[in-house]
Amino acid sequence: MTVRFAILGAGRIGQVHARAVASTPGATLVAISDPFADAAQKVSDQYGCDIRSIDDIAAASDVDAVAICTPTDTHANLIEQFAKAGKAIFCEKPVDLSVARVREALATVEAERATLMVGFNRRFDPDFMAAKAAIDNGSIGDVEMITITSRDPGAPPHDYIKVSGGIFRDMTIHDFDMARWLLGEEVETVQASASVLTDPKIGELSDFDSVNVILRTASGKQCVITNSRRATYGYDQRIEVLGSKGMVSARNMSEANIELAGTGGFTSPPLLNFFMTRYTAAYANEIAAFVAAVAEGAQTPTTGQDGLMALVLAEAALKSVAEGRVVKLSEIS
Amino acid sequence: MTVRFAILGAGRIGQVHARAVASTPGATLVAISDPFADAAQKVSDQYGCDIRSIDDIAAASDVDAVAICTPTDTHANLIEQFAKAGKAIFCEKPVDLSVARVREALATVEAERATLMVGFNRRFDPDFMAAKAAIDNGSIGDVEMITITSRDPGAPPHDYIKVSGGIFRDMTIHDFDMARWLLGEEVETVQASASVLTDPKIGELSDFDSVNVILRTASGKQCVITNSRRATYGYDQRIEVLGSKGMVSARNMSEANIELAGTGGFTSPPLLNFFMTRYTAAYANEIAAFVAAVAEGAQTPTTGQDGLMALVLAEAALKSVAEGRVVKLSEIS
Amino acid sequence: MTVRFAILGAGRIGQVHARAVASTPGATLVAISDPFADAAQKVSDQYGCDIRSIDDIAAASDVDAVAICTPTDTHANLIEQFAKAGKAIFCEKPVDLSVARVREALATVEAERATLMVGFNRRFDPDFMAAKAAIDNGSIGDVEMITITSRDPGAPPHDYIKVSGGIFRDMTIHDFDMARWLLGEEVETVQASASVLTDPKIGELSDFDSVNVILRTASGKQCVITNSRRATYGYDQRIEVLGSKGMVSARNMSEANIELAGTGGFTSPPLLNFFMTRYTAAYANEIAAFVAAVAEGAQTPTTGQDGLMALVLAEAALKSVAEGRVVKLSEIS
Amino acid sequence: MTVRFAILGAGRIGQVHARAVASTPGATLVAISDPFADAAQKVSDQYGCDIRSIDDIAAASDVDAVAICTPTDTHANLIEQFAKAGKAIFCEKPVDLSVARVREALATVEAERATLMVGFNRRFDPDFMAAKAAIDNGSIGDVEMITITSRDPGAPPHDYIKVSGGIFRDMTIHDFDMARWLLGEEVETVQASASVLTDPKIGELSDFDSVNVILRTASGKQCVITNSRRATYGYDQRIEVLGSKGMVSARNMSEANIELAGTGGFTSPPLLNFFMTRYTAAYANEIAAFVAAVAEGAQTPTTGQDGLMALVLAEAALKSVAEGRVVKLSEIS
């Protein structure tokens, strides 16, 4: 079976997924949709696909699956529309900034028995997958303590920050998902600390740029997440998992694997500093995994529930910062 | 001026300092004191120094300085005795397990205008010193976010744990001091999470073996400390400091700087797994710094106040765990 | 201009180049040719191109360029045929195993003013390109001493070795080209040492599996090449260039960028162990560079002369081993 | 038994060995000898030993062993004198610049059944020892191909070069010894290439500053040695041994084990750049090994024969450069 795709949204991430669909065996790109005609045209030209309206795509008999790459505030509505239309759905994170709205949309997905995969691309990074495989095959024994270091090269524009839902929902949300994936046990409590250190304007927008979070499961496993919106040396993305028998860690990716030696010492290039370059392989693997699940009628590797839980963790972290105390996930409704 | 030393306590750490004194130019070992005659004799034989009682050392005119290497519960008394006796004092951490008792002893030190250096050996590790120098010379700009990873190869004996004051006062105390040293600004609040993951017996003794702590200063700088009493791959001791212009990190020390390649990949040896081997150079530098300060009548690089503050941080961490909330240092009296 | 390609030979390397052509903007795959119908059909199915005979391709008006991926003994003839047919030619190394035959073919290329690029893929590896850029921008000053370490995971089949022309012409030839590229000055003399250490059968076939070569330019710059047909830890491909101001080195590529720590130490995965995986990016860059040169009518980054010189170096190395002495390139006719 | 030492020569290397003797359990420093009264006095003051003439030391009943740290042209004479005097002898490399003179001195040592250890300190470096141990315990299978990279931070003074015997006898000699130690089989042939690239004055003195050597054993094992008199990034000292089952390598030693990250990438400090700092542990281990052998009446780990063979290899390399051919060791008399 070839999975026939339409992509909703021809922006940056829509283009990433268009390329991934076009190069995945067993998938084909049928249509693109975007209110901006130029953006849609560009994707259409590049991959030879139709330009259609969202409603036409929902009604189309030659489309099996959609990738929702539109602005966040449209995600929940589109999920509901396409669940009802009987299409398999790949949706970029987050499903919505409101936990209640996410639950609502997921209820529709469930009622319609629709397929929904939420885009947590990092789970599909080859190095993180290799680390996870090492955990799963018992190489480090029981997981005990995790450290996730995740730093962006720089903050997004202020206008984006305004509508982003804040650092926990926008940036840490990826790390919350990684934490759940690596811990192998649901988080019970969250505590967090948040500062504005890189740009006072971010504080004026009621957001933070530097945060540390401690997650804890019922059995006492812990995970630390450390985030900053600024890392001059590139896109810093590391995980380190300590277990009863040892530790596994995944390292950063450099621009080039060379080293210069001179009177000042030994220098290697900065890290890849753009999420699309850093996670090229992850985006391709992610779409391939969605395609495989749709083709086989199998469970997708990430689900709407994963999208919900990451958002709940973000809410809990925000509440912890506001109230200066440990917050139980069960407090977030 | 040659600084004439007596060492109080001929146990493991006493022997470390005896060797350091014997090999430091400008210092000489005059006497050793220990209730166990054999232990004292061994040091005496090795370095050709006298065996004397503590009171004789306090009264001696040929002793300028003492190194207190006795059990923790004797430290405060000995500090007071030798402050009054006019000797320069090097005391192993902690000064005492009670904040109140530490304050009392420091009051005596102040009243007597005595010299007191508390033994936070890690500040004298060549790699950590190089990292600190990079911070001080502006290489990373303003310090923002610190991660200190500190894991012991294994837990101490249960009998030691019983009297240790708990992981925060016994193990994390080193990291608290490192954090203060690296942050360059006093900590204002502490939050911590603590589990028992490596040995249930540690929990039965009301202690923990796996902890994460977030420290925060008034300006919002943050430091995460992550500790475990078990690391199968050796003594894991790392620091990583993120600043506005970059990051500096100090790596671990291996048993040997070699690499084996084979069908299973590339393998390098485990870490040095004993604090005395790992910190050999640090212990030597520490005594040399004390000797230099005493000889020049200068301020010691670590003080009784540093000992107090590390203990206050430990108390705050403990309170945070007990009450599930952020604790201000000002709450600890 | 879109460069319209035909690929001659649908074997392993032909498939690599078919994929590269298909994914290079500005290039399109028009036809495949292979005496084995199944092999040709497979490429035709995958990329939707014609299956044609070699003569039809030579005569075709809709083909601008060919990639010669046939067995070595056909290369020279095909170069001559397609030079006369006015097609741009990309030819896999080596042009021929005989220096005289190569010179002959190159004479035809010159007479026809044809475009010929010989496939030295390593020059297009991103890490080696970054190292070369560092040399070219003066980071290491004047190049003085180079070490090229190149080891295959395992020897090719004995049947292949029989017709390969021997290790110098088959394997070291890549390193000879790298050496010329990095030295920035033609080699004047060669000396080599060759052993059979991994498989006696290779010796029975009058070949070697373990060789060291020292190349030397007129100004005294030197390059060491060290080769083995066996490296249990993967495909070992390193360069290291010492200059008057410093050194640049390019490291190996691992299967995954992770590290496992345990009682046995720290282990990272073996190297990528297949040339097509290791040099995926290089093959893509190589075709893109050829396409750009053809489209612009510019000089190709590697030429027939490069192919000739690498072969001459191989001959000189073989002569050095046979005669136990330093051989001048000028001795090879 | 305590081994009572006299040190002949109070220069730089004499001081290194004085410190090593003073800090080795089972050894004591009885006397120092040096024609320069100030130099001798300094050592005497530091370690509380006598100042004596060489003849007095030879006649002394309270001296068991001597360390010969005088200029090279006195080594052979002193070895003969002290062999006849019944003292155990530790002699710095080289024994002499003339192979014939070395053979003569060794004949006396043999006739007197004297103990002679030649100072090849690198065999006692902890990292190189760990690599050798990995070879000896079979971790890499049979040794096949070795690469020794050895580069000095800078050339010695021209006056020293004049009397040094040339780069092969002065610098490569250490690598020749390492090669023999690691190969585990005697070298049969040598070929070498030598240039002047860092300082034309070195050429005017008929010496070289940049050399590559290929050594080969009867069974075909090969070792490449690559030397330069200039490495701006410090004292570059690496070995890499490829075997049938894998590879072992020993890495360089940095000034500090830290890393700085910034917009320019990741930088770690240059290498330790002075042989006495780089090989501190090796010098201590070397004297300890000599002391142990003398105390137990055992064979020393390096012998006069090792000193001779390294010199023979140097002669062969020089002859290879002069004659442009492979030279058999058997040609060197």
Overview of this structure, please?
- Four copies of one chain form a homotetramer.
- Chain A is of the alpha/beta class and 333 residues long.
- Chain A is built from twelve helices and 15 strands.
- Chain A is globular.
- Chain A has two domains: 112 residues, NAD(P)-binding Rossmann-like Domain (Rossmann fold, 3-Layer(aba) Sandwich), CATH 3.40.50; 181 residues, Dihydrodipicolinate Reductase, domain 2 (2-Layer Sandwich).
- In chain A, the strands form three sheets. A seven-stranded mixed β-sheet of chain A has the order 12-11-7-10-9-8-15. A six-stranded parallel β-sheet of chain A has the order 3-2-1-4-5-6, with helices on both faces.
- The two termini of chain A are 40 Å apart.
- Helix content of chain A is 40%, strand content 25%.
- The interface between A and B is medium-sized, with 35 and 35 residues.
CATH topology of the largest domain in chain A: the name is Dihydrodipicolinate Reductase, domain 2
Secondary-structure content class of chain A: alpha/beta
The ordered H/E elements of chain A are EHEHEHEHEHEHEHHEHEEEEEEHHHE
As residue ranges, the low-confidence spans of chain A are none
